[in-house]
Amino acid sequence: MPGMKKRAIPDTAILLIFLVALTALFSTTGRNFFTYANISTMLNNMVVAGIIAIAITPLIITRGLDISFGASLSLSTVIMAMLYDRGTPQLTCLLIGLLLPIFVALFNGVLAEYLNLIPLILTLATTSILIAVGQVLTNGRSILMITDELFNFATKSPFIIPYPVVILILILLVYWYFLSFTKTGKQIYFIGANPRAAKLSGMRVKFIKIALYLAMGLVTGIAAIIMVSLSGIGYIYHGNNLTLPVLSAVFLGGMSLAGGEGSIWKTVIGVTIITVIFTGLSLMNIQFYFIQIFQGLALVIIVAFYEIRKNRQVAK
Amino acid sequence: MRRISVFGRDSITPSLALVYALMVLVFSLINPRFFSLGNFKAIMASLAISGIVAIGLTPVILTRNFDISIGSIFGLGMVVVAKLFNIPGTAIPIPVIILAGLSVGVVIGAINGFLITRVGINSIIVTLGTLAIFRGLTFYWSLSNISIPKEAFLRLGRYFVFDVVPLPFIYFIVLLVMGYFLLRYTPTGRNMYLVGANPTAARLAGIKISRSQFIPFIISGFMAALGGVINASQVGFANSTFGTGYEFKILTIVVLGGISLNGGRGTLPGVFFATLIIGSISNGLALIDIPINWRDAFIGIILIVAISVDSLQHQMKTTGVFKSSKRNTILLKDKTV
User: Fold this and answer.
1) Of B27, B31, B60, B110, which has the maximum CB count within 10 A?
2) Distance of CA B27 to the CA centre of its chain
3) Does A6 map to a domain?
4) Domain count within chain A
5) For residue range A252-286, what is the model confidence (pLDDT) as tens digits?
6) Residue A33's pLDDT is what?
7) Tens digit of pLDDT for each residue in B114-125?
8) Which of B68, B76, B304 is the best residue to mutate to test the A interface, defined by the most A CB atoms within 10 Å of its own CB?
9) Domain-located, residue A3
10) Is residue A1 part of a domain?
11) Is residue A18 part of a domain?
């Protein structure tokens, strides 16, 4: 992979060791860590954050960023539930819920690329607009949307695992294949490593980046549908507990905002670590604010560790 | 030559003043109550706090970094102050409590600055982590409201000088003037501009880049905590939610004030008028019967327009290769003279 240097022990291996140690720690302290019920809860917690983290990975590799996914997802659940509440057919509701985040992503992508805006700030602004619209629509209340189909979708499937987890695995495989084995995947790394060189060598940089924004919008739409089926409500604050874990997971996995680095598997490990911390501490009945502190500490310490290793590597 | 290249003519400030005047005019025409002394007093008292935090964020943006942990520092400052007022059996003197609240900001700023400039982690990632950590700590210390019973402390945020000017507004103006002189006339401040405008040139000119990027985080942490302390004295209590999402509002003020996200450009007078504009919006919207929920949407649109203008200006300035190389040499000379 371009931009990767050979090291004695790769960062990914250390991250995996950390994950195993963390899991071992929790399985000794939290008694029920390895039960089927817990693992399936954990997978469900992981699905929404996981698919978004996977979708944001190639975007960050190309130096893009979209932090409006939490707001976009929340507004989409609100719109779906409101439409359903007024008697719109379920399929139409879901379709609109799927499309809304794509439009938001189109707005973000076009503005970020054609006006050269810093995506962090742009999507921070988009977030506030989307949340405001949701608040005006609902006054901060949640709206019920419970149907048999959605319930079945969230809990069952012909396979052993429920549909949301199947979707997580499918999206994971698609993105992995796409990034690792296709020409566009290689171009994505090239764009991130050196956007100007990529442009001069004839790549359609803007097109590829906007396409990545749109793909992320589509995945956010799927996540919104999963969110509605898991929770049974449309709620504008669904995304509040999503932004931080997703971004932490991605950066924990070793993604760099400087672009050109990172992979789907690193993101998956990052998501798993965040989920293990969350689930393990929840099982020990530790308050949510301590969980937040631990996740923040894990992020800062691990990223600091990467950086120190990298600096030593350069010094040698 | 030097003055032109580093500080430029402050072109955005007059237009911001004009925008503010137009805004006042429109709001007053729709609802005459907007243009009353009582209303201006209320606006000035509340906007002073976000103005102070925005002054603190300015040097961070000038040196090409971000600090999104300011909302958490703001909230933690409030909670620490409120907690210290409520220790049973002991009455800690007010100055000590204020100092404790402010040192929270300095310590967090130093942690941020150390991780960013010494360890070398991206400022967004670091402050995202500290945002989570210190918001968590705030929750731990204050799950319910903590009231502040000390009247003398509350007066610091609620008193009106000559019955007209709110005391926090005076802090704001004093800090604004101090910040203006620091950035414009001291080597520390001028180096921040140089580092932000062109890190490579600054390094070649012998400026310690990490030092110039470290100090802004201390300033930003200090000012965020100061904003929290003043806010605590104004509202008279603290809880875990204060300052959540605050970084968005402050960032909007700073960017609208003409502090370029590409570093090294913009001055504090612009930030002053941006504070007036953003601070008057929620009040004005309420008075012309637009639901308060729309406020963040308005601020979001303003932020998008402001960064678009900033980006277009930046593109126009850097399109000529000759122009930019000439600018670098001027910057180099600036230091060696």
Assistant:
1) B60
2) 25
3) no
4) 1
5) 887 777 777 888 888 998 888 888 888 888 777 78
6) 65
7) 999 988 888 988
8) B304
9) no
10) no
11) yes
Please compute the mean of the pLDDT values over residues B124-153 and round it to a whole number.
Answer: 87
Question: Which residues of A sit within 8 Å Cβ distance of B?
Answer: 111, 115-118, 120-122, 124-129, 131-133, 135-136, 139, 244, 247-248, 251, 256-258, 287-293, 295-297, 299-300, 303-304, 307-308, 310-311
CATH architecture of the domain with range B2-336 = Orthogonal Bundle (1.10)
Give the model confidence (pLDDT) of B71-83 as tens digits.
999 999 999 999 8
Q: Report the gap between the CA of A42 and the closest CA in chain B (Å).
A: 21
Q: Is B200 on the interface with A (CB under 8 A)?
A: no
The CATH number of the domain where A122 resides is what? 1.10.3470
With CB atoms and an 8 Å threshold, state whether A115 touches B248: no
Nearest to B268 by CA among B44, B51, B46, B40: B51
How far off is chain A from B276, nearest CA to CA, in Å?
Answer: 19
Kindly provide the b/e burial profile for residues B172-198, where b requires at least 16 CB atoms within 10 angstroms of the residue's own CB.
beebbeebbebbeeeeebbbbbbbbbb
* Triad B68, B70, B73: Cα angle to 5°: 135
Nearest to A68 by CA among A108, A115, A110, A118: A108
pLDDT beneath 50, residues of chain A: 1-4
Contacts of A300 in chain B (CB under 8 A): 115, 121, 125-126, 129-130, 133
Q: What's the pLDDT at B6?
A: 41
Q: Which two tokens stand for residue B7?
A: 């500080």
Tokens, residue B103:
């040192």
Distance CA B2, CA A189 (A): 41
Query: In angstroms, what separates the C-alpha of B161 from chain A's closest C-alpha?
Result: 36
Answer yes or no: is pLDDT of B335 > 50: no
Token pair, residue A105, equals 């992503």
Range of the domain at A106: 11-310
